[in-house]
Amino acid sequence: MEKFRADAERLAEAEMRATAGATFELYARQFSEQCARYIDRLDPNLQRYAVVIANDHGYVEDEEERYADFGADLCSLTGIDEQYCHCGRHP
Fold first, then answer.
1. For residue 74, which of 83, 82, 66 has the smallest C-alpha distance?
2. 65: which residues sit within 8 A by CB, 6+ positions away?
3. Which residue has the higher pLDDT, 22 or 51?
């Protein structure tokens, strides 16, 4: 589990850099996608412990919640108000 703990920390730091300036929800979505793939490859007896560790970094276990739309007038990519979003996809 120590390897997973270190890898989760590394993934979290990488996603924080990648999503800097965006919303926490975007960070959590992207971190959770990467973490879920990692957790799925672990021994089933260790997966619940890995989820607890990942939760410390914002892991969203529920896929419906993970992929929920950000809402009206919010960018579906960044979760930021479309009038202030910097992604370049809004008029």
1. 82
2. none
3. 51
